[in-house]
Amino acid sequence: MSTTAWIIVAVVIVLVIAVAAWAASRQRRRKQVEQAEELSHEAREHASGIPESQVRAKEAEAEAERARLEAERAQQRAQEAQVAATQQQAVHEDRLRTADQVDPRVDTSSEDYHPGASGDGDVDGTDRAPRS
């Protein structure tokens, strides 16, 4: 084979390699484009659910706020009821002290004095024994 033939063979081989590389590059690019389109399609499908998710999140947030406000109101009612009960207990003890001060059987100056611990039994619902 002559030098010219070798040159022609080398050029043909280089051309075949270049065409193969170009075809592989083109095929890779086509696959990348397909993958990008698929990912974009998936992203668009996913994005369609975002507003609905945002609405659900806002609704849940509003429900939580309503529950928080109701809990605050319930706490306020509980505190008011506790204050009323404490006041009723104080009024009750005040009445018992007044009764004990009038009762000659009760020594209100004693260290172990407790309101309502008179000798007539169940004056305050405790059924305490009389003190001497």
From TrEMBL:
Highest rank taxon of the organism: Bacteria
Keywords: Membrane, Transmembrane, Transmembrane helix
Keyword set includes Transmembrane helix: yes
Transmembrane segments: 6-24
Residue ranges of the region described as Disordered: 29-132
Record field: compositional bias (Basic and acidic residues): 32-47, 55-75, 91-114
Keyword Membrane among record annotations: yes
Biased composition (Low complexity): 76-90
Protein name: Uncharacterized protein
Organism: Nocardioides zeicaulis
